[in-house]
Amino acid sequence: MDRPPVFLLTMGDPAGIGPEIAVKALCYPAERHKYRIAVVGDLEVLQKAAEVCGLSPSFNIVHVPGDAAGGDGAINVLDMREINTSQFTPGIPQASCGRAAYRYIIKAIELTMDGEAAGVVTNPISKESLKLAGIDYPGHTEIFADKTGTEDYSMVFVLDGVAVAHVTTHVSLRGAIELITKDRVLKQIKLLHRSLRGLGIDPPRMAAGGLNPHAGENGLFGDEEIREIAPAVNEARGLGIDIAGPLPPDTVFNRAFKGEFNGVVSMLHDHGFVALKSRDFDRGVNITVGLPIIRTSVGHGTAFDKAWKGTASTASLISAMDAASNMHAFS
Length: 331
Description:
Elements: E1 6-10, H1 18-26, E2 36-41, H2 43-52, E3 59-61, E4 75-79, H3 95-113, E5 119-122, H4 127-132, H5 140-147, E6 154-159, E7 162-166, H6 173-178, H7 182-198, E8 206-209, H8 224-238, E9 243-247, H9 252-257, E10 263-266, H10 269-279, E11 285-289, E12 295-298, H11 315-329
Parallel strand pairs: 1-2, 1-5, 2-4, 3-4, 5-12, 7-10, 8-9, 8-10
Antiparallel strand pairs: 6-7, 6-11, 11-12
Helix pairs in contact: 1-2, 3-5, 7-8
């Protein structure tokens, strides 16, 4: 009988909520019997996080992902021995934590690329901590793309059955407008379509949001919809993709959450993320599509203001682990 697949869970920034939500989520494995989890992190930090949460789990030290146990209540750990709790202050960015968090990620990528794990689930990291450590990446997505040699990739956010891809993300609003081109929009449409099918949604029903108020109102409030977005949508339809739009960005998400669409291509970072995070900040999941490996992540940050108090929600992490399992099942 085949054993369930094992996914690697990076511990995230040690000073953030990653260690505690990892411990809390993995203390109750019974309902997640379809897969195994091994934390790539530091045993001592996880043990202290368990104490903060009022928990006393057993820990199973593993040297390779395949040794991870499943279903017995023990938390599997690949102990990296990068840092201990005497070497950082909870709740603030610091170089030691950025360095440790980065090394967890690299180890998880290497093991998964070598076929030793089915995918990677990531806990939050701090961009400021990375910078303090001299690590020149803006975040997880760029690290994964670089270390897997991936050029065409995207971040997809999933919540309540709706997946959202963004044509532009971490760039100024002025710069983002210049980046709305037919080719970029079409690429995101294709990537989102592929990710929806990877999640078992087939055929996907998608929509493209507009850039301008009322999706430009036929050119009255801007012509990017006419020049760039509509041509991309039309070409996608010619490829057999079921996609509507461009639709007004202030209504497309409401229509999606009512069941009309299960995927939305958003032109701007804040069009998509404001809609999603206003609906539910805790349960969203990030998925990096286009990579040769599965990578899912919590939809929130390090939450330094909540860190090491034992109160952080595990909802997004559990959703991220389940999403990784679903992607593997349909791959």
